[in-house]
Specification:
This protein has about 90 residues and is mainly β. Helices cover about 5% and strands about 30% of the residues.
């Protein structure tokens, strides 16, 4: 089984009995920071969006509720997105 297909998907409800990845979707694994180990569903994202990364809302960033954790692709492994820091 593909290693990326084992994790929990960012944004999945905590009550969801199947919070893992779904067939036919494309994911990036988040590495480091408050969302470490989660998968981000990037299905349908453009090449420009994938290259830019994402600022993901999370209550567990350095700024608490209303904060975001920023992640972007690794130069040598685009399937993994590294934490770049937290923003408001």
């Amino acid at each position: 089984m593909d290693e990326l297909m084992r994790g929990r998907v960012y944004g999945a409800d905590h009550e969801d009995p199947d919070p893992g990845p779904q067939p036919g979707h494309v994911y990036r694994e988040l590495v480091g920071g408050p969302l470490d180990g989660l998968l981000l569903d990037v299905t349908g994202w453009s090449a420009a969006q994938l290259a830019a990364g994402a600022a993901l809302p999370t209550e567990i960033s350095a700024f608490g509720p209303g904060g975001r954790a920023t992640y972007g692709p690794r130069a040598d492994d685009v399937r993994h997105w590294d934490w770049r820091g937290d923003i408001r």
